[in-house]
């Protein structure tokens, strides 16, 4: 009886819609007239749509840059927090998390100003070193790097997860290794990294899934407004943005459903591969494996 | 905290403190810039970005944004939707989590696997059909779709609360059963009070998620009076950021108003945020 709400919710808002969107993906449906069976037309169209290719390219480019950079930087911060420990670590941790409490739309709006090519703070900072910064928000070649830069402001959760994992590494392990003559680099590679590998693996998966679904910041910055939309062209077209446009601006519900299912399959596949590969690399204390 | 490093003390620690302070400056300064720029006249928005106080000082932008847009209505909408979303997801998830933690019934593991499965399900997959459901119910154009989906529990919180309730010794429940308590009593009088920390984690996270949400308001709301703050901020940036007569100070002030309440909530519930992230990895 108690799990009934979940079962209803599962049927109405999860499984039902999943199956419905699979069914819709084989139709043409514009909300006004009833759905028309279209076979695999949507999928054929998707495979040839240059905008889909562009959106996939942008999304992959972003994910491949963002995920490793975010994890390495967050790990560096977490290691430093771990070294100083105590009350100080708590204060810094709070500071690092604050950007993650800023609504994505506000982040996008803020970086529209900070990344402004003529006068933004980022380029004025670069100018202090005699570097002429690029037109982050208007030059199609620099829009994605700018978005990656913005995304790296948001390391709070990843840092907290890795920091928590580091705190759980028993100090005796490191001490024992040091007595055996292991240098700090060897201790990091042989002890710290394996001990926190489950957490690293976890942040890899959640950051990848989130990156592939990037929407809010990018939409706030580059879409919905005629001027910004034209000046950015398709340089900021992320996959979920395109899906959103197809569904709710052009009312191509069938085509959008096909796009959604492709995304679902891709995310499931990537997660599965990461799981299989990661399962071999991750060290679980006590020998159990995922 | 590795003891050997600590005992080495001195130089290493100071170096890390300096590095962390530098990183903190990078993370904090965009906030400083936002607040300072929102308090300057338009002609000075981009001037002297490294001076951390407004010169010249011009707080009029906050009056202007109040006149340009129904900010108060948006703030109230955000709070109402956020509280409805957080309260409904917390209660329903706790209800379901109690079911998983206390009862043994056929198919339990399979159904619990479905909970874990939907944690992986990208929201984009259910976007269109969910819209069609609310459309068929005649509720598009209202705020109901922004929170009512939460009435059936949400995978992350069910998982979190179940883990928490599994930590409660079974004899606590059994003793109450012997004293004649009904299952609903067990839920209301024992499970809920005991799960308080986990309930607060779920509540603050959902409040944050609702406060962040841009896509659902974009899809479901047409009437600007019903907008939430993120949707309103999007409308403001579309109207005032570019074009013939940009009003940057209005955009920036709206950005501050959208962000500040959440930062305050964070400081109140900080403990729970940190614990929640460390245990569930919720972003």
UniProtKB/TrEMBL annotation, chain A:
Main localization category: membrane
Organism superkingdom: Bacteria
Keywords: Cell membrane, Membrane, Transmembrane, Transmembrane helix, Transport
Extent of the signal sequence: none
Domain ABC transmembrane type-1, residue spans: 56-274
Compartments in which it is found: Cell membrane
Annotated TM spans: 60-81, 102-122, 142-166, 187-210, 253-273
Membrane topology, from the record: Multi-pass membrane protein
PANTHER family in UniProt: ABC TRANSPORTER PERMEASE PROTEIN, ABC TRANSPORTER PERMEASE PROTEIN YESP-RELATED
Family that this chain belongs to: Belongs to the binding-protein-dependent transport system permease family.
Name assigned to this protein: Sugar ABC transporter permease
Organism listed in the record: Nonomuraea corallina
Source taxonomy: Bacteria, Bacillati, Actinomycetota, Actinomycetes, Streptosporangiales
UniProtKB/TrEMBL annotation, chain B:
Keywords: Cell membrane, Membrane, Transmembrane, Transmembrane helix, Transport
Transmembrane residue ranges: 14-36, 79-103, 110-134, 146-165, 186-205, 250-269
Record's subcellular location: Cell membrane
Pfam families, alphabetized: BPD_transp_1 (PF00528)
InterPro entries: MetI-like, MetI-like_sf
Membrane-topology annotation of the record: Multi-pass membrane protein
Superkingdom of the source species: Bacteria
Signal peptide residue numbers: none
Domain ABC transmembrane type-1 residues, every copy: 75-269
Family: Belongs to the binding-protein-dependent transport system permease family.
Protein's name in the database: Carbohydrate ABC transporter permease
């Amino acid at each position: 009886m108690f799990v009934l709400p979940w079962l209803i919710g599962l049927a109405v808002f999860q499984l039902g819609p999943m199956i419905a969107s699979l069914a819709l993906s084989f139709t043409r449906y514009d909300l006004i007239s009833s759905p028309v069976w279209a076979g695999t037309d949507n999928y054929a169209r998707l495979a040839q749509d240059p905008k889909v290719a562009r959106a996939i390219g942008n999304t992959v480019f972003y994910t491949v840059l963002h995920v490793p950079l975010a994890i390495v930087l967050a790990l560096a911060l977490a290691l430093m927090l771990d070294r100083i420990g105590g009350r100080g670590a708590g204060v810094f941790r709070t500071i690092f998390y604050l950007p993650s409490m800023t609504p994505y739309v506000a982040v996008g709006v803020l970086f529209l100003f900070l990344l402004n090519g003529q006068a933004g703070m980022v380029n004025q900072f670069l100018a202090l070193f005699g570097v002429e910064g690029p037109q982050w928000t208007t030059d199609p070649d620099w829009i994605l790097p700018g978005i990656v830069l913005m995304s790296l402001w948001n390391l709070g959760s990843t840092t907290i997860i890795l920091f928590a994992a580091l705190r759980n590494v028993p100090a005796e392990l490191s001490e024992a290794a040091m007595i055996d003559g292991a240098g700090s680099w060897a201790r990091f590679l042989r002890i710290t990294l394996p001990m926190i590998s489950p957490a690293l693996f976890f942040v890899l998966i959640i950051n990848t899934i989130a990156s592939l679904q990037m929407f809010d910041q990018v939409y706030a910055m580059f879409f919905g407004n005629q001027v910004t939309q034209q000046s950015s062209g398709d340089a900021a077209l992320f996959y979920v943005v395109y899906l959103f446009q197809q569904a709710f601006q052009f009312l191509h519900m069938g085509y959008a459903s096909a796009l959604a299912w492709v995304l679902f399959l891709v995310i499931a596949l990537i997660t599965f591969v990461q799981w299989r590969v990661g399962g071999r690399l991750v060290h679980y204390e006590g020998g159990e494996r995922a | 905290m590795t003891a050997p490093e600590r005992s080495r003390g001195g130089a290493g620690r100071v170096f890390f403190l300096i590095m962390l302070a530098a990183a903190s400056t990078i993370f904090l300064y965009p906030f400083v810039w936002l607040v300072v720029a929102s308090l300057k006249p338009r002609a000075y928005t981009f001037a002297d970005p490294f001076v951390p106080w407004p010169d010249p000082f011009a707080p009029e932008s906050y009056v202007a944004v109040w006149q340009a847009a129904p900010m108060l209505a948006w703030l109230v909408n955000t709070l109402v939707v956020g509280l409805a979303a957080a309260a409904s997801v917390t209660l329903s998830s706790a209800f379901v989590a109690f079911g998983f933690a206390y009862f043994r019934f056929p198919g339990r593991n399979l159904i619990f696997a479905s909970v874990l499965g939907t944690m992986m399900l990208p929201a984009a997959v259910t976007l269109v059909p969910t819209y069609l459901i609310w459309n068929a119910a005649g509720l598009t154009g209202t705020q109901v779709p922004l929170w009512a989906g939460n009435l059936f529990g949400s995978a992350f919180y069910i998982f979190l609360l179940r883990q928490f309730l599994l930590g409660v010794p079974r004899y606590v429940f059994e003793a109450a059963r012997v004293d004649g308590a009904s299952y609903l009593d067990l839920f209301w009088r024992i499970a809920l009070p005991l799960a308080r920390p986990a309930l607060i984690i779920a509540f603050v996270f959902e409040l944050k998620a609702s406060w962040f949400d841009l896509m659902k308001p974009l899809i479901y709301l047409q009437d600007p009076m019903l907008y939430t703050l993120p949707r309103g901020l999007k409308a403001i940036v579309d109207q005032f950021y570019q074009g013939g007569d940009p009003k940057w100070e209005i955009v920036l002030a709206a950005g501050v108003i959208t962000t500040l309440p959440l930062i305050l909530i964070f400081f109140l519930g900080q403990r729970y945020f940190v614990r929640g992230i460390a245990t569930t990895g919720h972003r």
